[in-house]
Each structure stands twice: as C-alpha cells, then as structure tokens.
C-alpha cells in the first residue's frame, strides 16, 4: 500500500480507498483497518473526490513520504 502511494505521490496522483484495498491483496476489512492506522499515525490523509463525493482519495503526507523514502533507502539490495 505504502509503495503504491509513494509511486502515485511521485506522479502527483491520489489513490482511491477501493483501489488500495484491491492492490493490497488482503481482505477489504483488514485493508481498511490498516488505512485507518496509517491515517492515525499521520502517514496518509484522506479527502473526498471532487468528481464523485462517494469516493475517498488517499495520499501520503509529507511524513509518509519521508518514512517510505527512508525505508526504501534502508533496503540493502
């Protein structure tokens, strides 16, 4: 989830909650709990879509970008 959000952030895009649930490959309820925890931790923020108010969009916060960037740099390939 965080990697997808990081990639989308680099392209200036936001991801729908539903798309994140699908991308995660885990049950929707589990993915939604994880999204809630990421939001509570300040790593993501959620906003309503301007085009469709039923859709919630998710994007990394500045703190989220730094956290994911640091984690990726720590990977020793």
Oligomer kind: single chain
- Provide the CATH topology: Arc Repressor Mutant, subunit A
Overall mean pLDDT: 95
CATH architectural type: Orthogonal Bundle
Number of strands: 3
Helices and strands, in N-to-C order?
HEHHEEH
Rough shape? Answer: globular
Uncertain parts: none
Please describe the biggest sheet, giving its number of strands, its sense, and whether it closes into a barrel. 3 strands, antiparallel
Distance between the termini: 21 Å
Task: Give a description of the structure.
The chain is of the alpha+beta class. It has one domain: Winged helix-like DNA-binding domain superfamily/Winged helix DNA-binding domain (Arc Repressor Mutant, subunit A, Orthogonal Bundle). 56% of the residues lie in helices and 16% in strands. It is built from four helices and three strands, in the order αβααββα. It has helices at residues 2-10, 17-24, 28-40, 62-74; strands at residues 15-16, 44-48, 56-60. The chain has a three-stranded antiparallel β-sheet. β2 and β3 form a beta hairpin. α1 crosses α4 (62-74) and α2 (17-24) crosses α3. The longest helix is centred in the middle third of the chain and has 13 residues, at 28-40. The mean pLDDT is 95.
How would you describe this structure in keywords?
single chain, 77 residues, alpha+beta, Arc Repressor Mutant, subunit A, three-stranded antiparallel sheet, 16% strand, globular
Write the layout of secondary structure elements.
Elements: H1 2-10, E1 15-16, H2 17-24, H3 28-40, E2 44-48, E3 56-60, H4 62-74
Antiparallel strand pairs: 1-3, 2-3
Helix pairs in contact: 1-4, 2-3
């Amino acid at each position: 989830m965080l990697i997808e959000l990081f990639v989308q952030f680099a392209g200036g895009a936001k991801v729908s909650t539903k798309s994140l649930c699908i991308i995660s490959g885990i049950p929707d309820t589990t993915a939604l709990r994880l999204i809630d925890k990421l939001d509570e931790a300040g790593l993501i923020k959620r906003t309503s879509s301007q085009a469709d108010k039923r859709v919630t969009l998710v994007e990394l916060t500045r703190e989220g970008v730094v956290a994911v960037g640091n984690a990726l740099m720590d990977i020793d390939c």
